[in-house]
Amino acid sequence: MSNNQSKRARQLSRLIELNHLAARLDSSTLLQTIVDMAAELTQSDYCSILIHDPQADELRFIAGPWLHMPVLAKISVPVEGSIAGATLRYNEPQLLTAAEQDSRLYRRVEELLGIRTRTLLSVPVRFREQVLGVLQAVNRTEGEYDHEDTAFLLSLAAQAGAALYLQQLETQIVEMQAKVGALEEHKTSFISITSHELRTPLGIILGNATFLRQMLNNPEFRPHLDAIVISALRLKEVIESLGRADNLQSGTARLRAEEVDLNALIADVATGNQAEANRRKIQLTIHLEQDNLIVEAEADKIVVVLQNLLRNALAFTDEGGFVQVSSQRIPGYAQVTVTDTGIGIPTGEQGRIFERFYQVESHLTRHHGGMGLGLSVARAMIELHGGQIWVESQVGRGSTFSFVLPEKQVLSKPPEPKEVPASQPDSAGLNRNH
Ligand code: ADP
Fold this sequence. Notes:
This protein is α+β, with helices and mostly antiparallel strands.
């Protein structure tokens, strides 16, 4: 085998080796391995990789002889007038054979490394159509760089391009995560400050309006005072849900758990929504587990969850539709479902609706109020109780929201089954079906 053939064979086997390594090494180690391999197999004094900074339009060393890297890392090579810059601009290999007389050689590197450059081969580092940087080999020990060296460097540069691209993506992800984190913090403190600042003046408005409503018997003022009180109460609810979301997000929400009869809570919340259901001509029914379902929970928080689910079910269901709240025992858990025959939720959106402020339809075009907080609060509250919440839905057919809570093991004897007629509306006008 000739000298050239054996060199080619070694280059090929090292390229195969590099291919195997590429998947296992992090990008910096891979780039360092590439320059070491390039120097060894092109018999060069050293090799280096420079990355292009498009904003400053200069090149910076990101891999090279490791002993000199601390010095090289501080150097910027201008694109204009340098051989590395020409490689980048023309997207083609460049060869300097009499470097001493060539003005395109960036002398600062020579000065700092104490190496005299006689020959230099520079190839573009690309990923797809984009030229990301340059791979350079300096001073072939014997003779000049030839076509084989150029081909070998180009193969290595292809590996380096993929590694650089990956590194850029990683940096972008880290930067974006930092930005998202900062935005999230701004959002949280905005919510916290706003809900806190609004609470006091609203309390004063509500208190005084309620007082005036009691004191002024004049029927002429009554509708105006009612309007103030109703709107102030609505605003209070908005502020409370902002405050709740803030507490749950910041982890300051605490659970004051006690034994809770889930069926009783469901019946109460459903009764409270009956007037709205009637107004919207929606048939609201409840279908409860025969036995008592006792859970260890904070009743107020479960009421908020039920209220949010039920309010959504009514809001997103058209006139003539049906909404049913049901409960059932599954081994170790109590399960509650709120089913509606409303507009439904596209599959792609079903995971996102539990995020804070997420709404399927833009708040600018939608017909319903709301801030996109109800479901995120519901999820946080259910998870705080060691439960889970989820949705199943089909666009145009309706949605079923379900949650489970661990059932409390009650040692006392099972309660008497309740006798409720199957189809007769109960006192609140609700249809209870067992
Ligand atoms: P909002 O205050 O907007 O109702 P939620 O967090 O409660 O906030 O709900 C988030 C979004 O999920 C809603 O804006 C709506 O797009 C969708 N959604 C929630 N419940 C239903 C439902 N029962 N039917 C259809 N879409 C729903």
